[in-house]
Specification:
This protein is of the alpha/beta class. It has helices spanning about 15-25, 30-40, 45-55, 60-70, 90-100, 115-125, 165-180, 180-190, 200-210; strands at about 1-5, 30, 80-85, 110-115, 125-130, 135-140, 160, 195. About 45% of the residues lie in helices and about 15% in strands. Bound molecules: adenosine monophosphate (AMP). Adenosine monophosphate binds near residues 52 and 87.
């Protein structure tokens, strides 16, 4: 199963991708995570990407396509994958089509995680990630049992991503509307678009997502 998860920042792509990984074993390929890792390791890609990321802008296509090409060539991606946060604009979607055609592994579906903008804003400003185990919380919708403490591993460093600060979020949502929303039509024309209502309970959304991509148990 090869799928693209699309949706505005905060639409729950990452959370839902992790659930698919846990249940079905496909790797989650998140360009945001790959870029943050490159920044943390101080690689050349990371150094070039950092300023755009801190400003809520898109990183240039050559950097993103470089890291995605490397990642899709890894053995664990050969049996399928979930792309999270890529493609983010039409040139990236076209490049992905060519790359997958070259590999003779076409995409099965592109899923749009559909959420209202006011919900997105709270999801983003409330998001905290455990600095130790990576578990994700939301101070409004999914707080940890004990304030400031990770339910998963007990660590006390629940971190707000630097690009989840209010001033950057407005820009990220604007960039999404301008650059990424045209992909909905792109995939609709290709006959691959599935739309999932992504408001509400995480498990309900997951049920709808699995049905949309044909992974629901019968
Ligand atoms: P994300 O974790 O997917 O929200 O991505 C965080 C940031 O990484 C974005 O705001 C962009 O600056 C950058 N980024 C992630 N994926 C892409 C992509 N496909 N194209 C360009 N920039 C990206």
């Amino acid at each position: 199963m090869r799928i693209v998860l699309m949706g505005a920042p905060g639409s729950g792509k990452g959370t839902q991708a992790k659930k698919l990984v846990a249940d079905f074993g496909y790797p989650q390929i998140s360009t945001g995570d790959l870029l943050r890792d490159a920044v943390a390791r101080g690689t050349e890609f990371g150094l070039r990407a950092k300023a755009a990321m801190d400003n809520g802008q898109l990183v240039t296509d050559d950097i993103v396509l470089g890291i995605i090409r490397e990642r899709l060539a890894q053995p664990d991606a050969s049996g399928g994958f979930i792309l999270d946060g890529f493609p983010r604009n039409i040139p990236q979607a076209e490049a992905l089509e060519s790359l997958l055609a070259e590999m003779e592994t076409p995409l099965d579906s592109a899923v749009l995680m559909d959420v209202d903008f006011d919900v997105l804003f709270k999801r983003l400003t409330g998001r905290r990630t455990c600095g130790k185990c990576g578990k994700v919380f939301n101070v409004y919708f999914m707080p940890p049992e004990k304030e400031g403490v990770c339910d998963g591993c007990g660590a006390t460093d629940l971190i707000q991503r630097s690009d989840d600060k209010e001033e950057t979020i407005g820009k990220r949502l604007e960039v999404y509307q301008r650059e990424t929303e045209p992909l909905v039509e792109f995939y609709e024309r290709a006959g691959k678009l599935k739309v999932v209502a992504a408001d509400g309970d995480v498990d309900d959304v997951y049920g709808r997502l699995k049905s949309a991509v044909g992974l629901a148990e019968s």
